[in-house]
Amino acid sequence: MTSAIRSSRPMVLAGGVVLLLALGLVALMLVRPSSSAGSAPVAAAPSDTSVDVGFARDMSVHHQQAVEMSFIVRDRTSDEAVRRLAYDIINTQANQRGMMLGWLETWGRAKSSSAVPMKWMNHPFTPRGDGSLMPGMATDTELDALRAAKGRDAEVLFLKLMTPHHKAGVEMARAAAGSADTDEIRNLAAGMVRGQQSEIALMADMLKERGSKA
Fold first, then answer.
1. What's the pTM?
2. Is the pLDDT of residue 31 over 90?
3. CB neighbours (10 Å) of residue 128?
């Protein structure tokens, strides 16, 4: 009995030491922040007049109309190619718009502004009061015509409206990709340029197939 107690005592002591070491490591982790967390500075939010904030606000509005037009044509044609393009624009631009609005909220910036659109590009645009708030955007009259059209007429009108819409969007995105301060905006804008240029070429082919051009 005595020898058994003596033989188990070192094991108990060893277990106690391991437990104390483990508790000590946990305490150190709780008390002292990690070196990686301490060495990574928190980036300041872009200013309210920055390219990043201006682009996020303006492109969110620009994208919203593209999504609206895509929903309209989707329900006015049975052509699979046009419906597929509309579906792609809806998904891509609604997602991008959500990202930009999310960044504005994270930065503590309002999602809209009374400032003149495009001021961040040094190309201020004064809305004409016809629904076209920025270059490339369709007017209220053009949107009403799209809603009234059906079949091939709706397809052609949609493609004709979306082509200048994309071209203006590419110009905005190219400016942001080259001038924004944040990686988020630069990377997103560069992706927009590539994606919308590809769709512009696709729409030119689709218009040609329908005996028309932009």
1. 0.79
2. no
3. 9
